[in-house]
């Protein structure tokens, strides 16, 4: 009797489990299919590439505005216009992520809001009476839009490609790929401005960005089988719950992100103006910017290929890549300062410095996890916040000095900041190896990764969807 009773109980449990899985599939439909995760990733990467491409190509606008408004707007002010919208977007991603989580992860609503703000920024910027108004039209509106879109991208990619996923590093690398767009965007921006003027260029870009960003409204559905977070779901208050012993790693990584941002955008926003002083054509004046951006983009392509074919080859090795590339770039910048008059060598150094800076941008997401020991949905906005601070102070450390000294010592100052970055990385790695840091577990929060039972149910539902 007892044996038959146990068999009936097991059969009932099996039927109940099967019913739950069928119900999951019926309620999620196509979102449960494995290919949907790759569509989400492709859409997320495209959004980041376009947003990142604009940040890197905005130096073309800076060069043109500096020529038209040379008597009323300084180079430092134009740099702040170019940096500030991205700084606002980066520094508020933690807050935006918190709002999105507290809303129940309504990714599509926030993606639409971000798309609308970016469109508003481009349209209003086309009609400003002078560049000073861009601090309102471009900095505020585009900053809010970027914050929403970047937060949505970071959260949804970490849902579909969590830490246990075989292609986690590939996915997080692809959504750090703003550099790849620079190859096209730098010349495209220059051509648009020369053909239609900078005001109409803003209108054209607004239409393009709205179409690209709105694609996320179609594809950014929540991952099936993944429930909401427990506790208050806040990324902001999570910082208070991190073990204080880990604070030095967070501080050192934050310093690294600041220096990375200062140098990257200091180069991208000023190289076109640096060449424009002796070159009348805006398209020709952007060649150093293009070479630097191409070097940075090539590491993105290389990193994507390596992680696609080897999956986890770079797991826990990114810190060594960052240290080596940072040391080489600092030395190259010193050489550039000494031989800046040599045009051929400057072209070569522009590409090489971009190439050695590339890993610090390309691997921002996975390297942040590795060097802070935080889960991705905390490490990503924390890393972006550091980049945002760097953007905010970059004009004072780059454009202001370049304008006052006619670009004398410009590359040497960038080298000095890279050495600060190198020191922060080395100290971080030494401390982690001495203390044996492991992935942190934040009390009161459930990690974005599914527990074993939920993961099993989600995987079984996906398999049934295929069959």
UniProtKB/TrEMBL annotation:
Keywords: Membrane, Transmembrane, Transmembrane helix
Stretches assigned to the Major facilitator superfamily (MFS) profile domain: 40-433
Region (Disordered): 1-21
PROSITE patterns: MFS
Segments passing through the bilayer: 35-53, 109-128, 134-157, 169-190, 202-221, 285-308, 320-341, 348-367, 379-402, 409-431
Any one GO CC term of the record: membrane
Localization of this protein: Membrane
Keyword set includes Ligase: no
UniProt superkingdom: Eukaryota
Gene Ontology MF term list: transmembrane transporter activity
Membrane topology: Multi-pass membrane protein
Keyword field contains Iron: no
A Pfam family that the UniProt record links to this protein: MFS_1
Name of protein: Major facilitator superfamily (MFS) profile domain-containing protein
Biological classification of the source: Eukaryota, Metazoa, Spiralia, Lophotrochozoa, Platyhelminthes
